[in-house]
Amino acid sequence: MQNNNHLIPKVVIAALVAGLLGGGITYGGISMFQNSGMDTSVPTGSNDGGTTGTSNIKVNVQNQSEKAYKAVKDSVVSVINLKHAQTNENPFASMFGDSDNNSSKNSGELEANSEGSGVIYKKSGDAAYIVTNNHVVAGASALQILLSNGKQLEAKLVGRDSVTDLAVLKINGSQIKDIASFGNSDNINVGETSLAIGSPLGSAYASSLTQGIISAKKREVQLTGSNGQQTGNTASVIQTDTAINPGNSGGPLINLAGQVIGINSMKLSSDGQGTSVEGIGFAIPSNEVTKIINELVKNGKIERPALGIRYINLSNISVSQQKSVLKLPSSVENGVVVFDVTKNGPAANSGLKKYDVITELAGKKITSQDQIRSILYDQKVGSSIQVQYYREGHLNTGNIKLSENTSQLKVNQ
């Protein structure tokens, strides 16, 4: 963690420089315009020579970004989360402070609760399928889709997954002509141009396009629930400075070939300490998206094995604490440190404890914490995997039976 105190001088200097540039640079009141013997007087006479006009040359501004946008835009939809309107049985109760009688009930009417974006990725027979974010559809009484041509369709939820924040919807595909295709998110590069299409601030701004670059291919971020609290889960996501605003959630992040390389999910607007942040958005990589939505279509949900532990990267622990607290040999440079174990969970039943350092799981060496989840998600509930870990400086080997899934455990794996 960086110490913010070290950042203060840099911020002050930047502000001072900006102030000087904004007002023009001065040097103690000394004029920078000194007579060097040249005639600097303003010419007199007619101003006819100051007129101008516009050029008739037509510029062809069509570029690859425009082509990519046109290829995808008609497959991007607005997703409207509908809820039953609330009505008070006693409309006068609140007026007289009678909270006990101020009960409410659902009316038969549906009203828009929130909006997001989605992208049509498959058409099969009379059905078409849309991927969006789980948080876009969560809590909905009904779902409605607004196509790019303005037509509205009813949507049914096929399945959703809170861990990856993905959901699949199904609509009548008889009117659907355009679908998007997924690219390989492993092939993207930092600095590569990226485009986001969606409905920022709702369907009034549907089909909005923003452009930026890929800022990082795999950024580990903490996930938060609908209550704003961290869930303990982390996600490996694409970081981009492409503008992603409320309403863009669930829409596609595309490359210049018009391929979906990610599903926009969130943005960082503050560092949590009051500092405003711009240009940091995140998208779920297409390779993970396709894997999750295929399982949602097949089973309606995602079942993942879990270890029942919380952990952090060994690199986040100071060298002195690695020696004094963890008692690790200097030769151990990578792994994850267990800092919480669920009672009677798979890891606990296999003997793992707080401060154990896991260096290998299922035969794969652990170099970062995001590997844990990817390794586990390749396993099945009920299977057993081998684990290597250090405790008090000694290497241990054991087996963990993955008898639980993530929905049964309250920790991140």
From TrEMBL:
Residue ranges annotated for the PDZ domain, each copy included: 305-393
Organism: Apilactobacillus apisilvae
Name of protein: Trypsin-like peptidase domain-containing protein
Keywords for the protein's UniProt record, in alphabetical order: Hydrolase, Membrane, Protease, Serine protease, Transmembrane, Transmembrane helix
Region (Disordered): 91-112
Compositionally biased residues, Low complexity: 98-107
Metal-binding as UniProt keyword: no
Family, similarity comment: Belongs to the peptidase S1C family.
PANTHER family in the record: PEPTIDASE S12, PROTEASE DO-LIKE 8, CHLOROPLASTIC
SUPFAM superfamilies (alphabetical): PDZ domain-like (SSF50156), Trypsin-like serine proteases (SSF50494)
CDD domains membership: cpPDZ_BsHtra-like
Annotated transmembrane regions: 12-33
SMART domains the UniProt entry points to: PDZ
Keyword Transmembrane in record: yes
